[in-house]
Each structure stands twice: as structure tokens, then as C-alpha cells.
């Protein structure tokens, strides 16, 4: 599958230079979980004293790994921690056997690293409903533990890919109390591994010192305005996982959820979220939807996601059609408050509709010319209040159908 | 647009024989609202004493016609009524001008028929955001009123089409108190008229005698289990309208919402709903999703629609892939109660997953063979309670993308 899909036209020029984050080491390798000849496992260790926070899929049918991570979060941080990820098999909908696989992998990593088992956080992504061949993985754990490297993050970004068309990374640095603090993250998502659903996995590291409760609070707040504001096709994986590790090795302590650290972390999370959208299946356009003037922020997000998830809006974008009528339709169906006669809509800076009708100043040629760009903004003002939200999506193209319908495993 | 789309492979052999319903007359004609050389207007009159009930889109940005119909419903029925429909322009998001167009058309029909203006129910379907050229329509009203015909229902079914690939009709007869009662209905939907959203319009007629409040109660209940259980792409039109007229001309009175009349009406509504799905844009498969064992009926419908609206499920069906993993995913994301380890899933009679894992008896070849049919059943049992619901949808194919993205108006 992965090998047949060309690199997304929205991909950046290459993988970014990511700094080593003090206290974090990476190892990646080949375990042939499903495919031969590609990296499909990675081990990431975090030094003693690291805090770990996480956010996860809300799916009622989430995978054994997700349930295990949720159980382990919030534990004592003095022992350090490890993240382990395999691609090729999601260990989802594998019944009780799936829990056994998580246990077996966690034990193997605990043995190889000396970390307590309840500090081993695992993720799996790939085919669902097939037993995870965890023996292939546990056989490689000692090798991985022996090859940990502070500069190994790019290899980890490659190992977690499924049908992603490019590896995804982002970084930021920020000064706290005169000390430089690094943040670096990797993500995978919106590629598919046949025959199953896309899974988004994200791992972010920092050498800031942050207590676990504060780290979790920051992460949860920022997830709501970054990863929870992107959508490719409205479908939710059973395995979505975002883990954030803070080693404290910089000596700089974060004591408030508002400030330079959160701003920098948000920039990294947002960049990774945008990269996931830019690798959306079949995507040829990146679309930012800015909703303002809603009754409240929640309504704004509801409207934004209704627009972003509408197949008719997404196919119009694919067809480079400035079809504001479909935007009106999506607002109307979202369930959040709207008044036709107060609504205004713009594409980029071009006002296309206002006061319940097409704008007098608008000419179809303007919209048609604007839609040829590969980064688009759709602005909606409800005219009702101060609620606002920004969400990001991609278009819906023949490529999406081809990836998900034409090729079978 | 309409002319370039081949007839749906799921279309029936032809338009059915529909009986004349006493007290109902039809006229259709060409007003060139948008396109020349095709029927695009129809007038339907209902005799004195007819009750009219309706259900409508819940869109917050619904059209001027829908708002007007909602205002007029429930009025005195002794004067008879008329339905008027035009295709080519939906009169949606046309601001105050849209209200003026509805008023102008209603007045013209009142003048031509002698009916009070508040008994004229109008619908418009087609391009949105463009002023309805209602002068073209009002100029034709006298002709229409002069050519009313009890046998004209097929012409009406043709006039309301936009990019529908076939005209849709259904009928049933039922005996009440020894008297034969006829029910006949027409529908349009799931075709698009570029550059706008699909609209579903449905008109059903009967010569039963039913009080307006009871007719409305029956219609609302049956809409929930028929038209509100179908989905093509999860998008909701600003114009969806279902009107039901009961002339009473048979002399047979319906006095209870349960009974033979409701059963027969349900069969007509369900058949029309299925025809709309079978004309879904790009559809090649008709899919019935049967959810049982949910905590309650509402949860069952939530799960059913989550499966029916999932792009990943719909592309799998298009690819003839018995991808039960995507069904699990859709159940997980729906928000309604589910327990992975109690879930079972079948495709037709083939049990593919049970107790949180692939069924031991299941072989991929069975599923692959089943998926080649063009009428499919996906069964889901949640194992939680007695809640159940059945919903209907179609697959998501390259045809959908082509209709909505490739061709521009």
C-alpha cells in the first residue's frame, strides 16, 4: 500500500532538523510485523524524573494499547519512562489476546531497560482484527535497548509510518528563566494501512521540568485547539494517541499553564497537526476554516467541523469551486446556532456572501481564481456573538477513493 | 449536469403504474427556470377538505419555501390545497428576495385556482444563492391550472428531478372499513444540481380521510423510521420537504395512528426512501444496516447512521471489501454505548466478528464473495439491550467525486 502512494503534493521539502532533547533517546528497527524491509518498531526512553502526559481517542472500541496507556498515566515519575510503537498491526479488536500482547511487550521492555513495567507506554498502528505477532517484537527489544541514541528521532518518525507518504517532525525552542528549553515532536497519521482505518500517533518531547498534573493540563488544553481541530474524513481511529514527555533535564521549570512554554508547545503541536492534514489521503488542498461571531466557542467549533467534514464542501474544494452555497448548507446542518440573514462568508479576503445572500461585490471569477491555490482559507462570521474557532482539513478527491476502495489488501 | 450522468445501476426497470388518487390532480410544464427543454414546474391540487401534513429539513439555514410551508401547515383544511414545485433554482440563501418569490408564486396560484394563498405550499430545488426568476414561473401558472389531470403524476415526478437519474414513484392500496384507500407518492433526491447540494423532495397523496393533527402525527412518526433513516453523504439540504395530502375522497376514515393505513403509508414512504438512496450520487451498492442489541432505539440509530455515514465504510463497500474493522471503528466513534467484547458483526448471514474478535468460522473468501452483490446487509449486534434500528445508505465511489468535484457549473 504505502509504496504505491505518491508523496503528498502538500508535503514539506524534507524532514526538519530536530534538536536532541536532553534525557530522551531513540532506537528504531525492523521486526517484520507485517511487511519486510522497512522500519516498523521504535523504542524511546525518557530519563529518571520525566513527567508523561497523554491524550487519546474517545472511541468506545479503543485498542488494548490505548486502554493500557490510560491506566498507566499519572503514575510516579521518578523512575523514567519508555514509549514503544510498532506499525503494521494495530492490536485493535483483538479481544483478550490484545491485552496479552501489550503485557508481553511491556515486560520485555521493562527487562531490557530496567524501567518499571507501569512506565512502559505502548502504541500499535496498522491492520486491525489480526492477532499482534508480539514474539517478533519482543525478540527485537534487546537490540533496540542496546542502540538508543539521542539523535535517533528521524528513524523513529519513519518507523511509526504506515501509509503516510512522508515522515513528520516539528520543533521549537523557548527560553525560561534564562535557560533554553527544547521541544521536538513526531507524528504519523492520515495514511492508511490496508484494510483499516487511519490512526494518528504523536510523540512530543521537551527538556522542560513540568509536574505531571500541570503537563497533563497543558496538553489537554492544547489538544483541544490543535489535534482536535483537524479532520480528514470525520472517521476516528481506535488507536489515536498523543504522548508528551518532559524530562526536566534543562533545569528550567514550568509552573503555569499560560506562558512561553505553552505557546511554543502549541506551535509544535499545531505544526504536527497540519502535517497530518497535509498527508490526508488523496489531499491536494490544505484548508483553514476560520469561524467567528458564533454564539460561543463550542458552537464555532461545531460549525467549523461541520464545514470541514462535509463531503460536498470537500469535493467542491477539490474541484476548485468557490461553492459558498455548500458552506451555508454545512452551517445549517451543524446543529449550532445560525441566522441566515446575519451570516457572511469569505474565501481568503474575498467576501462571497453577506446578509443572507451573495455579496454585491462578488464576481465568480474572483472565487475561481482564488481556489486554484493549494492553501485556502474559508472564513465564516455568524454575526451572533464572540465565539470563535479555527479548524483545518483537506479536500476529498479521487485519490481518497482510490486509496480506500480501489486497492484491497 | 443531469444529462451527463448515466442512469443509476440500482434503478428499477421503469416508473411504476400509479393509480389516480381521488381528489388529486397534476400538471407539469416547462418554464426554463434554469435549463431549456425539460419539465421544471408542476402544480398539484388537492380537493376541498384535504388535510395536509409535512416534515422538513432541520437546517438552520433552510430556504424561504420551507419556512413558508412550516408557517402554513395546520391551517383550516376545508378549502383544499395546492403544492407547487420548481426545479432549477432552490430559492435558498436568497435573502428577503426569496420570501418575495414565494409570495409571488403563491399569489399567482391562488389567483389561478381560487384557493386561499395560505393553502399554497411551494418547494424549489436547484442552484442556491441565485435569485429565483419567479416571473418565468408565474407566467406559466395559468397554463398549469388549465391542464390539471388526475393521471398526471408521472409528469410531476419528472418535473421535480434535478440530477436524479430516474423518476421515482411508489404506491399501495389498503382496505379500511371495507373501502379501498389508495396511496401514491413521488420523490426526487440525491442527484445534484450543480453547483449545489442535493435536495430531497417527496409528495405523497391518499384519498383516505384523516384529520390534520392525526395525519401530522402519523407522518412525523413514519418519517423517523423511513426518510430519517437514509443517508447518502451525511449532508443535509436547506430545502428537504415531505408533504402528505389526504383528500378524504374515498370516504374511509383513519382514526388511529396504528393500523393498516399507517402500515401501507410506511411501505410507500420506505420504497421512495430506498429509491432516493438507489439514485445516490455515484452509488453502485445499496446497503441496509441492521443494528440490534443496543442500549435503546436512539443509540441503535446513532450507531447505524455512524456506520452509514463513514467514508471508510462506504469506500470499503465500493471496493467490495468485507472490512468489518471499519464497522467497528464507526461504532466506536458514534458516541453511543458499545462494548468491544460484546459486539458481533455479520455481512448478510456471514458472521464475521463476535466477542471482540474475528469469528472463528469466518474466512475472508466468504466475505469477498458476498460483497460482490449490489444489495448488501450489514448486521451489528451490540449485546447490550433491546434497542434496534435499520438505516439505508449507498457506497462512496469515484462517481460521487466526479459528480461533485470534477464538473463545474
TrEMBL record, chains A, B:
E.C. designation(s): 2.3.1.35, 2.3.1.1
One cellular component term from this protein's GO annotations in UniProt: cytoplasm
Record organism: Cognatishimia activa
Binding positions for substrate per the UniProt entry: 162, 188, 199, 281, 404, 409
Subcellular location, record wording: Cytoplasm
Protein name, entry field: Arginine biosynthesis bifunctional protein ArgJ
Gene designation per UniProt: argJ
Subunit description: Heterotetramer of two alpha and two beta chains.
Its job: Catalyzes two activities which are involved in the cyclic version of arginine biosynthesis: the synthesis of N-acetylglutamate from glutamate and acetyl-CoA as the acetyl donor, and of ornithine by transacetylation between N(2)-acetylornithine and glutamate.
UniProt keyword Nucleus present: no
Primary localization class, coarse: cytoplasm
Record-linked InterPro entries: Arg_biosynth_ArgJ, ArgJ-like_dom_sf, ArgJ_beta_C
Pathways per UniProt: Amino-acid biosynthesis; L-arginine biosynthesis; N(2)-acetyl-L-ornithine from L-glutamate: step 1/4; Amino-acid biosynthesis; L-arginine biosynthesis; L-ornithine and N-acetyl-L-glutamate from L-glutamate and N(2)-acetyl-L-ornithine (cyclic): step 1/1
Reaction(s) catalysed (UniProt annotation): L-glutamate + acetyl-CoA = N-acetyl-L-glutamate + CoA + H(+); N(2)-acetyl-L-ornithine + L-glutamate = N-acetyl-L-glutamate + L-ornithine
Active-site residues per Swiss-Prot or TrEMBL entry: 199 (nucleophile)
